[in-house]
Amino acid sequence: MTKRFGDTTAVEDLSLDIPDSEFLVLVGPSGCGKSTTLRCIAGLESPTEGSIYIGGEHMNYRVPQNRDIAMVFQDYALYPHMTVRENIRFGLEEESGYTSEERDARVEEIADLLGISSMLDRNPDELSGGQQQRVALGRAIVRDPEVFLMDEPLSNLDAELRAQMRTELQQLQNRFDVTTVYVTHNQTEAMTMSDRIAVLNKGKLQQVGEPLELYHAPENRFVAGFIGEPSMNFVEGRHRNGTFTSEFFEYPFDSGIRDDVGDTSDVVLGVRPEDIDLKRLPEGGSSGLADHEFRMTVSVVEPHGDRNVVHLRHPEDASESETIHALTPGTTVVDAGTDVVVSVDPDTVHVFDAATGEALHNRRLESEVEVHNV
Amino acid sequence: MSELSLDHVTKVYQDDDEEIVAVDDISVDIEDEEFLVLVGPSGCGKSTTLRMIAGLETITEGEIRLGGTVINDVDTQDRDIAMVFQSYALYPHLTARGNMSFGLEESTDLPDADIEERVEEVASMMGIDDLLDRKPGELSGGQQQRIALGRAIVRDPELFLMDEPLSNLDAKLRAEMRTELQQLQRQLGVTTIYVTHDQTEAMTMSDRIAVMDQGELQQVGEPLELYHDPNNMFVAGFIGEPSMNFLHGAYSDGTFVSDLFEYPLGRAIEDAVSGTSELVLGIRPEEIEVLDDAAVGDDPAHEYEMHVTVVEPMGDQNVVHLSRPGTDDMSDNLVAVTEGLRDVAEDSTATVRLPSDAVHFFDGATGVSLHNRQLDLTEETLRL
């Protein structure tokens, strides 16, 4: 599918199959084309090229109300003059084949499931943001649609409520088994809620895969940097004779990495913060450091309680152009200003082509099973 | 010297016949050059406190002293304070340079050349030289907030007051600006009070954190002190993400008894909780061990079988939601955090351990902490 607005290509040649009852998250920075894609699926925009099918049926020329989809938006769009009950019941308005009693029973059933039974006779403005979003969900669910489309439904909620609603939504989706396409710019929502994630950037699909597949085996630097918080560290440099060299670092590649990198010379080394080990500087300073060890200076420590984000720079890197972030357990305290030994296990490094961003080598995992079974 | 003292400060608003106590008798001393974060949920009184320090609100009772001088009745513009707000409040028709020099032109007799030099100096220190000739409309949110900060720094005040300055920025930029702000404050050595509702900002930026709730000061301390040694359930639950787990129960014959399980206390904890009947057990998610088969049985008294309902993979870690086995209960009983590469399947049964050196106990009626986890924060073994 391609969608152009005048000369601007919002979505370029996107192909994606979403199996029945899958929860797919479309994620990317603002302007990446994710909302346009969702609006095309909903029928609020028509694709410039390509086709959209739901349950094998071609949808391009079908109006939104005949697509059997339900949408949930960031703003809850509840009718302020209607009670919660009336708002949810409104979702059934267009549906035929229900008696009045059946409609009432269905509303009660959904309200019970969402834990809002006690609020059925209140007006939306008497509810908190989280409760209003539950009502909006209820209105979508009550119709029992083929597909749910959700556009940043949690972004108006505060952090704690968002985390709670994330889990709730996921449990609900598991229970209803309705195919769901969920749009967000928030990588945490993508990672934690989805069966699979589709990452978009500048209108182009970057990668589709299970959360941990994207995390550990990104196809390119964009995906590697977008997925994960704090982000993957990137150091730009050159590869020559099996060794990576940047302004401040030399990192020898083992044969496995060398085979993957081949003769590409401009490369980017990537390492996730949790894969960087810190050790106390031995007596006698940096003499005797191994191949994959470096002496670095701690510039900032951000304690989070459960862990610390440690900012590191090379002692000679005054401009902090090659700053690296590491994670340590919360009870391992490091002081800003101290020098430490940083080691990076070759099993954990990624190498990207600097020109194209393409992943030449991804980290090694002990077994594939671990990634897929989690 | 720019130490700031709040001495039994109270703010009462009159609403018709009703009195609303927004800030209730808070006392805190902020040292010269300290970065203090005032944190709490909305309506806790943190912004009112900041506004009293700024002179934007009158003080109902108590004293505020800056550098030893009582400033209760000093006008805002004479307090030598610079404020940075959530909204950048830049003049749209002035360039960044014009915005940064405006305050100095109005409030000082400095010659234009000196002001110009000062603006350039601050801009270069902040790495925003190349933005100076642009207007706010041409700048991103992060850049606008840097200009607003620069405008405050140029004035070289005794005290910075910041009210949620990063809350309009997206998550990545916010994390970046957090570090930048913190480094800048260290470099300048200006005493700073920073208001936020975001506990991550409080933890990562501050020298000390003051936690407020319902107008009352709950605790003041270093980030890890609040995290590991909270005064009460409010602080324990507010600081840390995901939040500390709380289980309500009762004391019975050397054992904590809840709906979920029975937890034998041991002597030290028993002494600390004795005489309290209603108890709350607290444990941080990262302290709950989801056990490999081989590790089951090492401490059977503190191990429990739970049902894994949802696993949220974050990549570097997994958030594991656990509920009582054998029920269709959707509500979580416990949340645990495991390493990213640890394999935990949804809808399975897992044995978890709650180590006795990691649990907290609170008084169920008052929320006061009776026993905190045993961790000596000055202990050398914690140092890298």
**CATH topology type of the largest domain in chain B:** Rossmann fold
Secondary-structure element order of chain B, N to C: EEEHEEEHHHEHEHEEHHEEEHEEEEEEEE
Helix-and-strand structural type of chain A: alpha+beta
Into how many domains do the coordinates of chain B divide?
Answer: 2
| CATH topology grouping of the largest domain in chain A | Rossmann fold
Number of structural domains of chain A: 2
Assembly form of the protein: heterodimer
Number-wise, the strands of chain B total 21
From the alpha carbons, calculate the radius of gyration of chain A and give it in angstroms: 25 Å
User: Main sheet of chain A, how many strands, which sense, barrel?
Assistant: 6 strands, mixed
**Count of separate DSSP helical elements of chain B:** 9
| CA-atom Rg of chain B in angstroms | 25 Å
pLDDT < 50 stretches of chain A: 369-374
* Number of contiguous helices of chain A: 10
CATH architecture of the largest domain in chain B: 3-Layer(aba) Sandwich
**Biggest β-sheet of chain B: count, sense, barrel?**
6 strands, mixed
Neighbour order of strands in the largest sheet of chain A: 6-7-8-3-9-10
CATH superfamily of the largest domain in chain B: P-loop containing nucleotide triphosphate hydrolases
Gross geometry of chain A: elongated
Subunit structure (chain A): The complex is composed of two ATP-binding proteins (XacJ and XacK), two transmembrane proteins (XacH and XacI) and a solute-binding protein (XacG).
Catalytic activity (chain A): L-arabinose(out) + ATP + H2O = L-arabinose(in) + ADP + phosphate + H(+); D-xylose(out) + ATP + H2O = D-xylose(in) + ADP + phosphate + H(+)
Protein name (chain A): ABC-type D-xylose/L-arabinose transporter
GO molecular function, one term (chain A): ATP binding
Q: Topology, please?
A:
The complex is a heterodimer of chains A (374) and B (384).
Chain A: E1 3-5, E2 8-11, E3 23-27, H1 34-42, E4 53-54, E5 57-58, E6 69-72, H2 84-90, H3 100-114, H4 129-141, E7 147-151, H5 159-176, E8 179-184, H6 187-193, E9 196-201, E10 204-209, H7 211-216, H8 221-226, E11 233-240, E12 243-245, E13 250-252, H9 255-261, E14 266-271, E15 276-280, E16 293-303, E17 307-313, E18 324-329, E19 339-344, E20 350-353, E21 359-361, H10 368-373
Parallel strand pairs in A: 3-8, 3-9, 6-7, 7-8
Antiparallel strand pairs in A: 1-2, 4-5, 9-10, 11-12, 11-14, 12-13, 14-20, 15-19, 16-17, 16-19, 17-18, 20-21
Helix pairs in contact in A: 2-4, 3-4
Chain B: E1 4-15, E2 18-30, E3 35-39, H1 46-54, E4 61-66, E5 69-70, E6 81-84, H2 96-107, H3 112-126, H4 141-154, E7 159-163, H5 171-188, E8 191-196, H6 199-205, E9 208-213, E10 216-221, H7 223-228, H8 233-238, E11 245-252, E12 255-258, E13 262-264, H9 267-273, E14 278-283, E15 289-290, E16 303-313, E17 317-323, E18 334-339, E19 348-353, E20 360-363, E21 369-371
Parallel strand pairs in B: 3-8, 3-9, 6-7, 7-8
Antiparallel strand pairs in B: 1-2, 1-4, 4-5, 9-10, 11-12, 11-14, 12-13, 14-20, 15-19, 16-17, 16-19, 17-18, 20-21
Helix pairs in contact in B: 2-3, 2-4, 3-4
